[in-house]
């Protein structure tokens, strides 16, 4: 407000200077001592006013710059604090997950031994089977957390080899056949022959396992599941199409996040942690690839997939 008033004053003073200077120039009769004095005073006044307005502007700008620098420093400090907290959290997840893995593997080993050697009655066999299955679930959660942490901290290096995706996916589909058959689901696999890509087989298997286990988990009993490897210019694509619950556009935006809580029911009481697709995305992007998911809508199934550069 104050600087606007100063601006107006300056404009008025400058107009005054122009009028007086012009009238002194146009009316030679006015070139008396009085006019010269008036002219000098008005010019001088205008210069002083100009100086005052400019120094005020400079002061205001300097103040704003100092405030900006101060805010910048505060922001940087907050960012550093956040980065430290995030590193601490990641470290903690890493330590806890790693330390849980060993005792869990021991529990699994002992229950496997008991199952093989001493558990003869049906009841104990069933309980040991449950201990094993739940431990396996826990182990895969821990592995997902450790992998996520490794990718996010940049410490997961991929050793890649050139392989046929059709061959790898074929083997993975086979390994899911028993599980699918238990739910009466038919796994239909179609490959192709121009499908060589550079991948890390272990990490790619993690991706395919997650997509296939989701399709089996969320599809109704006796529904078919279509798995295909397709080759396009520059890309090879793995697609898994199911007749499950599908998803809305709104849900689509959250599918690949950690713990998306979308309330989809598994169809045979399978466990659902909410980490699998986030790992799929991390691992795919680590290969320079991308994930996709399509659905015609709730109740109309979905197609999940990944694409890798050739
Ligand atoms: N084929 C599918 N059809 C419909 N919804 C799906 C499908 N696959 C995943 N989803 C939805 O996306 C969510 C995230 O999937 P994600 O694989 O990350 O987790 P999850 O299968 O629940 O648990 P897990 O960590 O064991 O994989 C699921 O909880 C489910 O709501
Ligand atoms: Mg999953």
Describe this structure in words.
The chain has 310 residues and is α+β, with helices and mostly antiparallel strands. The chain folds into two domains: 1-156; 161-309, Histidine kinase-like ATPase, C-terminal domain (Heat Shock Protein 90, 2-Layer Sandwich), CATH 3.30.565.10. It contains eight helices and seven strands, in the order αααβααββαββααββ. The chain has helices at 2-26, 33-117, 122-152, 165-175, 177-182, 201-218, 249-252, 276-286; strands at 161-164, 187-190, 196-199, 225-232, 235-242, 290-294, 302-309. It has a five-stranded mixed β-sheet. A hairpin with a 7-residue loop joins strand 6 and strand 7. Helix 3 (122-152) packs across helix 8 (276-286). The mean pLDDT is 89. The site of magnesium ion has 4 residues, from helix 6.
Helix content: 55-70%
The helix-and-strand class reads: alpha+beta
- Sequence of strands across the biggest β-sheet: 2-4-5-7-6
Helix and strand succession? Answer: HHHEHHEEHEEHHEE
Arithmetic mean pLDDT: 89
Radius of gyration: 36 Å
Cα distance spanning the termini:
63 Å
The number of helical segments is 8
Globular, elongated, flat, extended or rod-shaped: what is the shape? elongated
Bound ions, cofactors and other small molecules, one mention each: adenosine-5'-triphosphate, magnesium ion
Number of domains: 2
Number of DSSP strand runs? 7
Biggest sheet details: 5 strands, mixed
Report the sheet-strand fraction. Answer: 5-15%
């Amino acid at each position: 407000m104050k600087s606007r008033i100063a601006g107006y004053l300056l404009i008025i003073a400058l107009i005054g200077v122009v009028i007086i200077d012009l009238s002194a120039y146009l009316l030679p009769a006015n070139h008396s001592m009085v006019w010269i004095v008036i002219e000098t005073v008005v010019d001088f006044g205008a210069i002083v006013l100009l100086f005052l307005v400019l120094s005020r502007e400079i002061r205001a700008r300097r103040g704003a710059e100092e405030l900006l620098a101060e805010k910048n420093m505060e922001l940087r400090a907050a960012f550093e604090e956040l980065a430290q907290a995030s590193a601490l959290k990641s470290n903690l997840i890493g330590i806890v997950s790693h330390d849980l893995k060993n005792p869990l593997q021991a529990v699994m080993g002992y229950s496997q031994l008991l199952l093989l050697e001493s558990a003869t009655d049906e009841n104990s066999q069933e309980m040991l089977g449950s201990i094993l299955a739940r431990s396996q679930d826990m182990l895969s959660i821990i592995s997902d957390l450790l992998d996520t942490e490794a990718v996010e901290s940049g410490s997961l290096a991929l050793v890649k080899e050139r392989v046929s995706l059709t061959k790898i996916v074929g083997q993975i589909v086979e390994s899911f056949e028993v599980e699918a058959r238990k739910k009466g689901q038919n796994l239909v696999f179609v490959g192709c022959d121009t499908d060589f890509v550079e991948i890390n087989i272990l990490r790619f298997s993690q991706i395919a396992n997650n997509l296939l286990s989701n399709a089996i988990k969320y599809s109704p009993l006796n529904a078919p599941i279509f798995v295909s490897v397709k080759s396009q210019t520059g890309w090879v694509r793995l697609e898994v199409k199911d007749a499950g619950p599908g998803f809305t556009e709104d849900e689509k935006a959250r599918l690949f996040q950690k713990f998306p809580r979308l309330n989809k029911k598994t169809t045979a009481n399978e466990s659902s942690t909410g980490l699998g697709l986030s790992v799929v995305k991390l691992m795919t992007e680590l290969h320079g690839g991308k994930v996709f998911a399509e659905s015609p809508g709730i109740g109309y199934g979905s197609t999940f997939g990944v694409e890798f550069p050739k």
